[in-house]
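Preliminary data (for renewal application), fe (ii) ion complex.
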Amino acid sequence: MDALHVYDAPPEGVAEDWTMAQDWERFTALDHVRWSKMVTEQTEALQGLASDEFLKGVSDIGLDTGGVPEFDAFNVNFRKLTGWEVVAVPGVIPNLPFFKLLADRRFPAANFLRQGGSQEYNDEPDMFHDVYGHLPMFIDPDFREFMSAYGRAGLRAEKLGMTDWLGRLYLHTVEFGLIEQNGALRAYGAGLLSSYAETIHALTSDKARRLHFNLPRLMRTEWPFDTFQPTYFVIESFEALLEEMETTSLREVYEEVHDLPLIPIGETDLADRVYGAQSA
Ligand SMILES: [Fe+2]
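Predicted structure:
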């Protein structure tokens, strides 16, 4: 698999803060049809699998109204509902500008569209992943507060040299997180919601391990970037997730985890609390 195209410096046409014009006019009629088809099919497929907030968010923010959204127009309603805006970037951007954008309540979305459908493994975050997978969750006030708190924590983690540890928090929540709602397991992570196949794997496969959220454990959990995750973390609520971010001293957690070994992909730890196990 190709490595993600991570840029070292803003390429031509990209501003200092890594944002760029969306250049919406270049999308063809076929792109718009393809986008609408992906949104419709994915939203139908995710009924009963995605968190309530996600499904509500898709229609509230207007993703189901057809065609690739033009960010300027899309942001009018999105800003009103969430206080955030989406901005175009060339792809995966470096940590520092990423954290800054989140801290400023601007969510970066890749400025290109995947060529295949939405059902397979999502190997490079494209506009469908970034817009459809991420933005609906911003209708939840606790979730979006968590996102800006994460951005601010990222700026501090840069100075402490702890971005890899913090990055695993993002990965195991914002990208691949599960939540218990009304007694059932649901997906809220964008890496899941933009890939139907991985959503099914995460929620139902007996090969997937599901653990209760535990910040130090999660920061130590290595993950594969080219296949389905073997380990997922289940939160109780978005309020609880935000509370973790606001009341925990991340500096203390970093001190705790810094000298501990990482937990290799798919491996267990003695302290694991398995979701659904009797002692939970
Ligand atoms: Fe993502």
